[in-house]
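Reply to dn_fold:

You asked what the input looked like. This is it:
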Amino acid sequence: MEEMVLPLDPLDASVRGLPMTKEPATFDEGLRLLRVAVRHTPADDAAYPTRLLNLGAAVMDRWERDHAQADIDEAVALFQEGAAADADVTASCLVNLCHALRMRYRLTGSPSDLDAAVAAGAGCLDLTAHDYDGRPDRIEQAAHALRERYERAHDVADLTAAVNLYRAAAEQSAPPDLTAFSGRPLVHLRNYALSTRELFTVTGDTGSRAAAMMTAFRIAGDPAAAGAVQWAARLTEDSTDPEELDAAAAALRVAAAVSAAADADSLRLDLVAALRRRARLTGRTDDAEAAILAAHDAVDLAQTDGRGLALGALGNTQLTCWTRIGQPAYLDDAVGNLRRADAAAGGTDPVPLTNLSVALLERHELFEDPADLSEAVRAAQRGVAAADPSDDDLIGYSANLAHTLQVRYDWFGRPDDIDEAIVVLRDAVDGADRQTLSVAKAEANLGILHRARFRRSRRPDDLAEAVRYARLALASFLELPGTEDHAGAEMLNLAMALRERARFEGRPDDLDEAADLAVRGVPLLASAEYPRRGLAASILVDRFRRDGRDEDAGTAIGYLDGLAGNPIVSTAARVDAASLSGRLAEDIGDKAAATTAFGVAVDVLARLPFRGTTRRTRERSLAVAAGLAGDAAAAAIDVGDADVAVDRLERGRGVLWAQHLELRGDLSRLAAREPVLAARIETVARQLSDRAMDYLDPVDTSARGPVLELISEALRRASDDIERAVDQSRAALEAAPPDLRAHASSMLGFVLGERYRKRHDRADIDGAVAAAFDAVRDAPVGGAGRYWSQYGETLLDRFYAAQRDGDPGAADLDSAIRALRHAVTAGRSPRDRADDLAVLATAWDRKADGPADPAALSAAVEAWRAAVRAGARDDAERAERTASLALALLRRCDHTGDPADLDEAVGLWDHALAVGGDDDDRAEWHMWRSIALRARWRADGEPADLDAAEAAGRLAIEHAAALDEETRTMVRTALDESARFGRAAR
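and this is what came back:
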């Protein structure tokens, strides 16, 4: 409770009583003396409100000891009387009144007490100075009252107001560097995190979600915050942002380190889940290994009763890494650990059993071992049996069992397997108490299972069930939010079932409905479902054959041509699609379209036999296209092109010969993504194309592994042991074979640059430049882009270093611009190209810093414009690049006087401020926007521009207030200079 030390008072009772209430042994006597002091002090005495406050605080202390309602009633009355007086202690009386009323509300449940508490809290804040040290605690009391009233009446406005107050308390009590929260500031931050989490739960507002997550991650070091950290980390379950997952993982590590044993076990499992999601998202080996290492730690540190869960998490992580990375060792380890997890759970936990089933099925598909398939079925069956009937995940376990049984049915054709799959999945769907995405998927799979059983049984009721379940699934997908992709695929599933029933039972209406569904479903298909266009085309072809509708043939030809030209579709499907398109075009008399389609079929045919298989296998793959070359030649003759006809006949019959003669392909696109792999392929191809080189210039392949290990170790050491990283990079470069020299040189340049940033030794930056240039020189064919980028950035670093030493460094700046131009045009990924454009734009900015150079100013503008257009990783980066473009336009306007540049710059700063930026950025952007608006006002005299400029200036100063003195001075000076010119113009 908040108290005020009583000033000297003539009444000895008050002076002696106040300290006595601080000790349990003398508390009652002290309370009696305080009552005497109040009773004998006149109401108009200036000391009276203070004595009321002290007595009220002592009575509240007794209430907290004895919980007698008479005490809390008396305390409320004392604080109300003290608050009614216009005295220095009014705010103190109000904050204590707020607390006492909240406590009485908990006893009596009276809404009026809660309303009065809210009013008292607000009144206290009105009377409390903003620089008063105790203001954060008073803000917190007011927030508590609002939050409790929200819990009674569920008025979101109360919760929103409480969140805002908790944030204000946290901000006002924050340590100067905004890190290492402890004590009361940590309590305020924790309350803000919890209330924001509750606001997001109620409203689903993404802003509240982001604030709750960010704050929860900041309080990870608070042992009482484990639940909040865990909740925030679990929100990243479907995240596609690696940085968000990194933040979750970092917070979970800290929280696990300070939490009690049981909490720590749970937090470590969530850490594994976050790292596993990151590995799934990036597909990177190092991310997979980090997830597996964390899972091993979870197993090693787990309490006895948590070891099974940790083993399950380890196995699941290894399974995920197998699906993303593809190393069979992951799969074997996953099976072993999931078996151990099942044993630890005594066979009663469906989660490890289901994951074990999935891992065994994956291994069966890889090695085709029937024993794995049988064990997968048994594990899935045990998983379903172990699940509680009320478990929300039961339908997932059942779907896994149905899928596993279907796989075994496809392999061995056992009728019992597909019968059991249908029964299991139908029971799960019938037992579901609500329609969810999992239920809709199960309905869709039931339709597919019934259609598969119909092909064996030929029973009409299977077809009827296939249609019924497909309709149910489609209705569910159309109702559930965010399931458009599923709806498109399900339209095709329903169309296939209807087409099959139309063929079997002769129902023309079914075929019409199937064709209409196919046309509706194709636009909704996801990119991964693209091959389903072939199914849609086959249904339309059926109706065209029946009715002769040219529009059906035309639509089908469009779908088939799209399939034939899509490189992600299998080669066999592309050949079939192009061939069918050609025959349909012939049927409707479009000879030109027919010859074009057959030409595509012959072109793709050359890719159909896979080079790595035996000649007999390749001949068998070509047998499915028998007659294609003749059809293609006939189509060409139909349009009068005999030369094309001969060419197609020759290429159609010479596919295998062409494979033997074909030269290797261009590696530039692979090199842009994986330069080391491209370099290795380049070496192998060179050896195969000229066997003599094996003897003239042999490559020691045994050196590659150790070199790559040295490079990886140097990268890991760069942050904590830079000297060792440099030594390892030099050793890697000395041992590197030709195809790894560029990679090794690049790493040496990187670690030397890192050492320069730590020691500022000019020799290091010179060495970094030389190593980066060596990487460019030794780059594999088509893979120089990344090395040009590093070379340009390193030259730019040396330019900055020279400037700090008083050397203009102009040659380095010009060379950096040339190198970055090479990087931009080298065919790198869109994100890398965007980064290169931003660095190039920065270099042009520096070029324009010297004597007036219109060309450099325009080049900077265009480079920043291209960087903005190329995209950004997040809103913050997009805002920064937009603001940089605005500044480049303002600088060009200063030189050319072009008002269009000025107008565009103002608009771009508006956009940047709307998108993001911290206080530092926003202070700068508001400052430049103010300067630009004043310049525009001077040019055209529009009063609105001057008003907006002054408003922007005020905002710049407001954001700069929280920054360092140098920044505040810079902002004030720039604004004062701009305003001075404005006054002179006025």
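The radius of gyration is 37 Å.
Hope that clears it up.
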